[in-house]
Amino acid sequence: MNAPRKLKVATTSLAGCFGCHMSFLDIDERLLDLLEFIEFDRTPLTDIKHCGPCDIGIIEGGVCNAENVCVLREFRANCKILIALGACAVNGGLPAQRNHLDLRDILAAVYVTEEGLVPGTQIPNDPELPLPLNQVHPIHEVVNIDYFLPGCPPSGDAIWKFLTDLLTGHTPRLGHGLIRYD
Asked: Into which CATH architecture does domain 7-98+132-167 fall?
């Protein structure tokens, strides 16, 4: 008898603090149980640079630059189900706090006018650097999202419940106490 096909899962972090991936690791030893049902494609746990065809894509972080847009579109094109994980992905989170400021003023303050900078410092202008967007966007403003898992960050228990519901064919439902904004 053949074992059931493992679902392919890809994850990435855009503009954020990486806290959601840390919460994913807070699943602890249950991660080993999860590996019986899934295999990872692109994720910080692998060294895969592009998202291949996957069943589930999990995105943390908002969209702040052109590279984020490309990665997000690649995930949407390759993932049957796409999940916005955490406050930054769901609503822009802390990175979106800059949205009421002019990007040119922010860059000048950080790279040119800030006290203590070396004289002659300039705003970086290298083609290897991703072009910043004028505002940080939640990911649903760029691509369609199938599920939203809010929290800052969501707990390992919330992620575990959400994924196991999804893997068993149930609509993910998080009861009282599993969503938090610390």
From this structure: 3-Layer(aba) Sandwich (3.40)
